[in-house]
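Action item from last week, closing it out:
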Amino acid sequence: MRFINPKTDLAFKRIFGSEHSGAILHDFLDAVLYDSQGQIADLEILNPWAAPKVRGMKDSYLDVRARLRDGSQVIIEMQVLNVEGFEKRILYNAAKIYSTQLGSGDSYTLLNPVIALTLTDFMMFEALDSYLSRFVLKEKTYLLDYPLHDIELVFIELPKFNRPLEQLTTRAEQWLYFIQHARDLSAVPDSMGQVTPLRQAFDLAAEFNLSPEELDDLERREIFIHDQRNAIIRAEKQGLQQGLKQGLQQGLQQGLQQGQTEALRRILQRRFNKLPPWVETKISSASTTELEMWIDRVLDAESLAALFG
C-alpha cells in the first residue's frame, strides 16, 4: 500500500479539508490546539476540497478553513517552501478573515476569534526548542495580555518533530507522525489504525482511492515543490559564494588601505619628523585613492600644509 504525501498542499487539503474530513479535522485540531481535551464541540468545513486542477502551478496557497460551534474560525495551512513574504501573508490572511466578518453597520461585538494554524516543513524560530508555538497580542514592555485573544497565530515546525513511532505518547504526536511519514509507510501502523480518525486519514491518503488525474496532479505538484526547493537552495549557495567573495574583496581592500596608511605615515615622519594631530586625523580617515595621491606627491611637497592643502 502506498500513501500520498500529506505535506503537499493538495494532499493536505484532500485529507483534512474534503467533505469526508469532518471527524479527521475535528480530531486533529482538538489534538494540536487543545491537547485532546474535547474543547471543540463541533466544526464546519467552509471550503471543502474538490480536486482542483493545478496544471499551470499558479496556486501556491491552498488552505483548509473551518468554523467551530462557538463561531471561531480556524485557517489551516501546510507550507512546504519558505518563500518571501510568507510571514506577512499569514498575518494578513488572519486579519482579513477577522475583519470581513462584519457587514455594514454590524456591531464589533459580533466579531469571532480567528486562529491561523500553519504547519511548516522548514524551521521558523531557531531560538525555540518546541515544535509548537502560539502568538497572541501582548504589551511590549510588561508582556501583559491584550484583553482579547481574538487573533492567534499557531505554528508547527515539522523539522523539530522527530519522535519515532514506538515513542509516540499523544494524539498530537500521532497526527504529526502521520503528516511526516505517511509517504514512507507501506501499511497503517497498528497503534494508529485503532484510532478511527487516523484510520480515515490513511484511507483518504491511500493512492488506490485516487483517480489517475488526481495522482497526476499530486505528482506534478511534488515535482514543482522539489524544483522550487532546489532553486531556493541554489540561490542560497550562490548568495553565500557571492557574500564570501565580497567579504574577501572587502578584506583585501581594508588590508590595502591599512598598509597604505602605515606607509604614508613612515614616509611623512622621515620627511617632516613629528606629525601634528591634524595630519594623523586626516590620513586615518582617508580613502585608498587619497592615500595613493599623497604617497605620490609627498617627496615633492615642501610642507605638510602644501601636501594636504
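Closing note: Residues 9-210 form one domain.
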